[in-house]
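note to self: dont lose this again. the chain is below, predicted strucutre after it. 335 aa total, dont forget to put it in the shared folder this time
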Amino acid sequence: MVEFRPFVSKAPLALLAGLLVVGCAENKMHADGATSSSVSRNFVENLVLPSYRLLAEESGALEEALQTLANNPTDAHLAAARQQWVETRPLWEITESWAFGPAETEGLDGDLDDWPVSVLELKQAFATDPFTADTFSRLGTTSIGFHGIEFVLYGDGQRAADLTPQQTAYLALAGAAFHDTAEQLLSSWTGADGFGAELMGDPDGTVLEMIEGAIGTLEEVHLEKLGAVLEEGPEVLESRFSGTTNTDIVFNMVGAQRVFEDTGLKQLLTAKDAGLAEQLSESLAIGLSAAEAMPSMLSQRLDDPAVVESMETAIEATESTFNLMTRALETLDSF
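---
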């Protein structure tokens, strides 16, 4: 029997709890009179910036864990590096609904999270001796970031004794590059000249961009992260080596929900169409529940009808939410 439980570490949940509490507090503050200015400020100051601070902090811990493993490749250090990868991963996935601006224009999204991983390119690179910083610099985005690191940590039932000098050199370089990119992302949104300030200077445009960001996440989930897998097979699963695709999707849904529920955006929509606002709120909750019902290790379970059914349920729920979010965009863009 399949156990329908998401593979979610307690640590990122604890870290995110503080972020979400802040969002809920601000949501209540603006519930009676949300404006585009209050929504955009709440979005930047109480959702985006705290999330990127957490990501930068945990990416530093990931860099350290990978460097430790590279210096001394033991099973204990491999387990610690895997655990830190799992701790860091949701802190990025929750931000996908606001992966616009510098994440897109400066290529930071791709450097952190391009997929599916290029297994062939990595294997070819690991055949070079020695593996140097120059070797690493020539890799494409599908060979670095979360998924390149994931492949080396988890691929082919990896044990510490199996790690080659090329792979340990890669892990040290990839960890440092990942941390640097996360720091760049935070910096790009911060301060008077940052993208966050730019957004708050155009609150009406920001409200629409917030909705478009959530729409993009919902579309990617139902079409690419799940739909494409049922059509093409496990090779296109996003986090297939660690078996945590389900957790990715849980936090994608949490991020979209936070944009709507915890910034005052729901109140803005309620003022224009209360019925649509309530429908969307309920649909986001249903979509999140459907994501939470999917099991881990999807790549090994696609021949199980119960697992496929759980994925199809999540696709249907997410697509429905996508359609409602699109209507919300049209409603708010028409005033």
